[in-house]
């Protein structure tokens, strides 16, 4: 599996699936969630509502999928990152689950290229270094017959440097 780190806006990425750092309501929010719904149009939110009516809210660490509306990808995988709360072990496990469950869902859908934002490192205040380490480790560990490439789309230079460093260290 190829792993790439780039700086950019995930709504512009041409991949089979992009991942959204959603909140448990699935009804949209700020940050990357707001950007995805703005750029993708109302179809994504409609599908999120259907999922919500079926299963209730999405728990932290879990992932659900919708189509991608007007975005250049096929799917949006919505995962709910943990809010950083100083329970390092628990928060780390939940963030690991976000990556694992998103990758698993993508694999089941036959996704070849998937792009992740830096989940939980914005409004949810997860320490960036630790979040980067968890993200890279989970992707490295993941075995898939379908996924060929994972792109970490960093919105700021600090995260871009962190993810590049963590990726280098993981070889
Ligand atoms: P969370 O609530 O999980 O912290 P945020 O959306 O606040 O979610 O932040 C997650 C990460 O997404 C942050 O690093 C933020 O800078 C980044 N981000 C915000 N907008 C975009 C975007 N359009 N594309 C990629 N990353 C983005």
Automatic annotation (TrEMBL):
Pfam family, one: Macro
Stored CDD domains: Macro_OAADPr_deacetylase (cd02908)
InterPro entries, A to Z: Macro_dom (IPR002589), Macro_dom-like (IPR043472)
Residue intervals of the Macro domain: 1-171
SUPFAM superfamilies named among the record's database cross-references: Macro domain-like
PANTHER family per UniProt: GANGLIOSIDE INDUCED DIFFERENTIATION ASSOCIATED PROTEIN 2-RELATED (PTHR11106), MACRO DOMAIN-CONTAINING PROTEIN (PTHR11106:SF27)
Designated name of the protein: O-acetyl-ADP-ribose deacetylase
